[in-house]
Amino acid sequence: MDNRELRMDNHWLPFTPNRSFRKDPRVLVGADGMHFTTHDGRQVIDGISSLWCVGAGHNRKPINEAIKKQLDTLDYATAFQFGNDQAFKAAEMIAAMAPGDLNRVLFCNSGSEAADTAIKVALAYHRARGEGHRNVFIGRERGYHGVGLGGMSVGGIPANRKVYGAAMMPRVDHMRFIHDPVNQAYIHHQEPVWQEDILLELENRILPLHDPSNVAAVIVEPIAGSAGWYIPPKGYLKRLREICDKHGILLVFDEVITGFGRLGTNFAADFYGVVPDMLTFAKCVTNGVIPLGGVICRDKLYDAMMKTDAPEHVIEFFHGYTYSGHPVACAAAIATIDLCNKEGLYPRAAEMGKVLGDAFHSTFKGLPNVIGIRSLGLAAAVELAPIAGSPGKRAYDIFVDCFKKGSLVRPAGDVLVIAPPYVVEKSHIDQLVNTLADSVKAHA
Ligand SMILES: Cc1ncc(COP(=O)(O)O)c(C=O)c1O
Predict the structure, then answer these.
(1) Which of 14, 89, 258, 302 is the most buried (most CB within 10 A)?
(2) Ligand 1 centroid from CA 223, angstroms
(3) C-beta 145 within 6 A of ligand 1
(4) What is the pLDDT of residue 1?
């Protein structure tokens, strides 16, 4: 297909510079395994699991077959006042995978909806327990929790927030970011040990400012994914758990990226040995094939909401989406989880993560403009010094260049991230890393 055959007047692309895209479009028309086919017939290796979604690789027959079968059996069913067998089964599997008593799954369709759902559960839970005054939320600088008004408010990526001040939730504060560019620029498959206790700020400034008794929840990504794969200090999440427990504050892990295998475990909660009160997920749960997201809640949240004086015909939680627990999406989730188990893909992610991390550190260290390298799980990031006065331009140009050379990598500010499907082979990693390294040199 030629560019001139593409009609691009109507599709307004998300999180994309539409003006420059139209001049030099990147259009994907096919995918199989580790590769895309572009509209001009090229093969491009998917180095970012298509935005952290496609853990099992593209075009996996067991998932496709499960979807086709479900379409012929129960294509869709109204979600309110009804359940469907696939949703019950998927929820059971997901709860069984989650640690502790994270047992109650509220389905939605995306990570953004999951974040907003978690915020609403927190408010409703506290109110059900007679603590409706708990309405302060604490996120973290450079956190990403999607684009809903709730997730955006607790999120901390400046460009995403800049224009929407008037629509932002009130009573939200942010902890400082988890990056030390001086002492912790290079993180090679270990948890960085900080001399400083970064959570003293929460204990000694943020909580006293709002009074801990007013705080509903703290929400964090265990690893800051969208910002550019920033790894928390050793012990950070455990200590966050302790602080939240001390003050009756709910802890929410946004595991939209880290959930379902990226760190080699079911969830980052398992990797770090910390059980949050709510855990949000999306993306890899269905291999990205059909939109599905959700919030896994601890029993105590569900139980508090069920303990109501209202008559039994009254809904306990006025929340849900038309497509909550969509049977086709849930069938895709069941098939994806089964496939990942059968092929041992989460342990494989851990194994290949070491290969990726080693390649990053041995290849990028010392290259022009490289100011940091971070690897953990099956994801690695190289951070570049920005071009003076044009933040983000260097990484964007490198991303475009790599795509032209057959490798899809992800720019985030001036960070470039590679997070391939769990089925990645060493030869793919070599290709991705070498293409990226050549481009980093070419853009010095
Ligand atoms: C941690 C996190 N939360 C939420 C989201 C939003 O998910 P979605 O784009 O499916 O709404 C993302 C997307 O990348 C994410 O990384």
Answers:
(1) 258
(2) 13
(3) yes
(4) 62
CA of 102 to the centre of ligand 1 (A): 20
* CA–CA distances in Å: residue 391 to residues 17, 231, 371: 15, 22, 14
Q: Is the CB of 264 under 6 A from ligand 1?
A: no
Binding site membership of 115 for ligand 1 (Cβ less than 6 Å): yes
Which residues neighbour 278 within 8 Å (Cβ) at sequence distance 6 or greater?
Answer: 102, 118, 121, 122, 217, 250, 251, 252, 253, 295, 296, 297, 298, 301
Residue 4: the pLDDT is 59
Q: Counting Cβ atoms within 10 Å, is residue 199 exposed (0-12), middle (13-18) or buried (19+)? A: buried
- The amino acid occupying position 93 is M
Q: For residue 137, what are the contacts with CB-CB under 8 A and spacing of at least 6?
A: 119, 122, 153, 154, 169, 171, 172, 173, 215, 216, 217, 218, 219
The pLDDT of residue 250 is above 80: yes
User: Using CA positions, which residue lies closest to atom 14 of ligand 1?
Assistant: 226
For residues 400-428, give the mean pLDDT.
98
Contact 257, 268 (CB under 8 A): no
Compute the Cα dihedral for 74, 80, 85, 89 and give only its sign. Answer: positive
pLDDT in tens, 349-406: 999 999 999 999 999 999 999 999 999 999 999 999 999 999 999 999 999 999 999 9
**379 C-beta closer than 6 A to ligand 1:** no
Encode pLDDT of 3-26 as tens digits: 557 889 999 999 999 999 999 999
Q: What φ, ψ does residue 90 adopt, rounded to 5°?
A: -60, -40
Of 241, 98, 136, 236, nearest in space to 176 by CA:
236
